[in-house]
Amino acid sequence: MTLALILAVTALVLVIAVAAAGGAAKLARLDGATYPAALTRAAVAFTAVLTLAAAITGAFAAVLT
Questions:
Q1: Per-residue pLDDT for the chain (65 aa), expressed as one digit of tens each?
Q2: How far is CA 20 from the centre of its chain?
Q3: Predicted TM-score of the model (pTM)
Q4: Is the CB of residue 49 less than 8 Å from the CB of residue 17?
């Protein structure tokens, strides 16, 4: 049960991160950015979502332990 929950939450976080990266890239292209600049913005958004998820997980772990 616990392993399945961990895998499901991990998959959900990755899907949200990819969606945020895709949205950032699309918005950058609509703003007139080049493809390398749009890819850079997408990578920053992807990393930011994963970092936020790790920080929230660490905060929950500290509170619940």
A1: 899 999 999 999 999 999 999 999 999 999 999 999 999 999 999 999 999 999 999 999 999 88
A2: 6
A3: 0.90
A4: yes
